[in-house]
Amino acid sequence: MSEVYAARRTRLREYCNAGGSAAALVSRPANVRYLAGAAPHGAVLLLGKTEDILVCGPSADRPSQERPDEALRVQTLPGAAGGDPAVAAADLAQGQGADSLAVEEHHLTVARHRALGSVAPRLRLAGLGGAVEQLRVVKDEEEISCMRIGAEIADQALGELLESILVGRTERHLALELERRLVDHGADGPAFPTSVATGPNAGRPGHRPTDRRVEEGDFLSVCLGATYRGYRCEIGRTFVIGTAPADWQIELYDLVFAAQRAGRESLVPGAACRDVDRAARQVLDSAGYTEGLTALTGHGVGLEIDEDPQLSPAAMGKLDACVPVTVEPGVHLPGRGGVRIDDTLVVRPEADGGPELLTITTKELLAL
Amino acid sequence: MSEVYAARRTRLREYCNAGGSAAALVSRPANVRYLAGAAPHGAVLLLGKTEDILVCGPSADRPSQERPDEALRVQTLPGAAGGDPAVAAADLAQGQGADSLAVEEHHLTVARHRALGSVAPRLRLAGLGGAVEQLRVVKDEEEISCMRIGAEIADQALGELLESILVGRTERHLALELERRLVDHGADGPAFPTSVATGPNAGRPGHRPTDRRVEEGDFLSVCLGATYRGYRCEIGRTFVIGTAPADWQIELYDLVFAAQRAGRESLVPGAACRDVDRAARQVLDSAGYTEGLTALTGHGVGLEIDEDPQLSPAAMGKLDACVPVTVEPGVHLPGRGGVRIDDTLVVRPEADGGPELLTITTKELLAL
Which stretches of sequence are listed as region Disordered (chains A, B) (predicted)? Predict the structure, then answer.
């Protein structure tokens, strides 16, 4: 694995050098993880002029399955001193003779940035922008295979829930049970707080579980994901509780399903992100659901649950092969509930069979 | 409740006005929650020259038990536009005729700060420092009562775990079971990721649960907490698995217990934070455990799990009455394990009975 991290750091170094910085300071945890193999709590990565160093705080605890790249020097700040690894890294960069340090201005706070400037006054602080985030967009097959396993785990957890009795149980208990099942099946943990929404809550994006109990006739929408070796995935499904869905439920479900399918089918290398969004959105739009739609119909996913690219009306850029994204349109009718259908897929060329669906739980409307 | 939030905002306004700023922008979520009664995802609070406004993003989901102060105007940004509530708030501040806006430089990133400056060029951006964090240090009885309930919930969850069979179960499963029990007993959720550490892991501060199984003869250390109405608490205990602890286990336990008691007993209004730290630390120091001690032996707790004050050798400042803190010394022997004992207490004058212990689970060394 070490060559993978070294190659990623080389790409970033080339980018920085082209921008006139001999050194870069990476502080955003997912970016540190991507370049160093592990992101102990609070650690930063110095891409130095003469040497790369992972600078860790005194209580640099990390998930047990993460190991820093062995080719990397690891420096741990002494316990009693406290101190900010980013500040220590700036000092090291200056000591290596760099005159400019590119930093993540979208992650460093104003106060930390100022502390960097104070400790290393001879260093010009430049902006690294979202360079590491951009490197992270296209995944290698090793990364995708972690996401595939995570998706299998989420599918399993969801499948088991559907076999249990649901009526009378609260949203919060169902969410906790799903999270326990994720871990039972080998996940590092949930990829994000599991959302279970019943009745009038169903279909609300990002709904946080409440003490409402599942009732006959409810829509039930569930959104969950597993983290596996740091990589995340996301699946959302909506069900009906009881023997048979009502007509309005079938209609709404079919509509959201059609929108989600349109989004999925437009996932081809070279497609504009906004066109994927439009494909899904216009199905809902043309049925009169223009209000209350979410700003995104999908987004990239990987070491974080919400990455570039964004699938939205204002999104710039095109999709590449090997970019995992979610497609997750939905409709929520205030007071009545709604439907959300969410998959994680990997963009693949048509010659390779088109988009690879990672989350394979059925999207038929099940009555439970 | 509305008067409470209004009074808090008034105190902050007076502080800002004294510093020469007519307006303040509060962006750190726990600070928004403290002043506005709720912190919907991404929301910021403008303490304006003419009016206070809670500015929310389009997907401003919030825990169902939080309600924004009704005396506060709430402005929600339109969905499709996306946009940063902090930037919108700066625009509103300038529109109200403020010439200076105090912002949380320890929370705003460099990039967001720059965006604020661009949208409101006539506004001088000043620093609010940790003013809200300082207001939050001393709790009112309403806040303490939420913490007391949270501590009861954590005690219950821990007590139930101790009655179950532990040998053979993994750290991760025990941690998940504790978190489920917290929610069963009415917590909003865990106050922080539950730590369960067995055998050689026991006593490691901030240990993340692994797949290691509990074995006879292990030390087992557990650290958990409940969030109740937004307020957090923390309890840590160490047990021995099997019929009787070994001599070295009893010795180490007694030592850490003595250190923790010394820390607790020094919690009086007016005590210097560093003296509380020293009281606990010197018990371990004088027994020869100088290496590997954590930077803190305790910290404030409230809307966040780790607040001011810090109990550390370099800490400035004194304790006031009605300040909840943890006291949590520990020793970890690499390869063998260790002991950590952690309580949440409220500083009270001696006339009121001295420090109020919120987490009441026994600190006898139990063999389970």
Answer: 190-212
Tokens matching residue A59: 């209580």
Chain B residues lying within 8 Å of A80, measured CB to CB: 293, 295, 313-314
Rg (CA), chain A: 23
Tell me which CATH homologous superfamily contains domain A2-136.
Creatinase/prolidase N-terminal domain (3.40.350.10)
CB-CB neighbors (< 8 A) of A106 in chain B = 109-112
pLDDT digits (tens, 9 = 90+) for A97-154: 999 999 999 999 999 999 999 999 999 999 999 999 999 999 999 999 999 999 999 9
- Longest CA pairwise span in chain A (Å): 72
Task: Tell me whether residues A59 and B206 touch, CB distance under 8 A.
Answer: yes
CB neighbourhood size of A210 (10 A)? 17
The H or E element spanning position B238 is strand B235-240
Cβ-defined contact of A294 to B79 (cutoff 8 Å): yes
pLDDT of residue A120: 93
Q: Is the CB of B105 less than 8 angstroms away from the CB of A106?
A: no
Interface test with A, best of B56, B109, B312 (most A CBs within 10 A): B109
**In the Cβ-directed half-sphere of B276, how many Cα atoms lie within 13 Å?**
35
CB A48 within 8 A of CB A36: no
SS3 B344: strand
B207 neighbors A61 (Cβ within 8 angstroms): yes
Homologous superfamily of B138-357: Creatinase/methionine aminopeptidase superfamily (3.90.230.10)
User: B111 and A106: CB-CB below 8 Å?
Assistant: yes
CB contacts < 8 A, A to B, total 100
Q: In chain B, which residues have their Cβ closer than 8 Å to the Cβ of A183?
A: 172-173, 176
What is the C-alpha separation between A218 and A205, in angstroms, rounded? 17
CB contact burial B138-152 (16+ within 10 A = b; e otherwise): bbeeebbebbbbbbb
What would the pLDDT profile of B49-101 be if each residue is shown by its tens digit?
A: 999 999 998 765 555 567 889 889 999 887 655 689 999 999 999 999 999 99
Tokens in use for A272? 């504009």
Residue ranges of domains in chain A: 2-136, 138-357
**3-state percent helix, strand, coil for chain B, nearest multiple of 5:** 35, 20, 45
Cβ neighbours of B281 in A, within 8 Å: none
Q: Do domains B2-135 and B138-357 have the same CATH topology?
A: no
Other CB atoms closer than 10 Å to residue A66's CB: what's the count? 16
**Are A82 and B313 a contacting pair at CB < 8 A?**
no
Tens digits of per-residue pLDDT, B205-216?
889 899 999 999
Distance, in angstroms, between A340 CA and closest chain B CA? 15
Angstrom distance (rounded) from CA A62 to CA A174: 29
- Across the interface, whether the CB atoms of B79 and A207 are under 8 A apart is answered no
B2-135: what fold? Creatine Amidinohydrolase; Chain A, domain 1 (3.40.350)
Record: contact B106-A107, CB cut-off 8 A: no
Residues in A closer than 8 angstroms to B206, CB to CB, are 41, 59, 61
Distance CA B90, CA B23 (A): 10
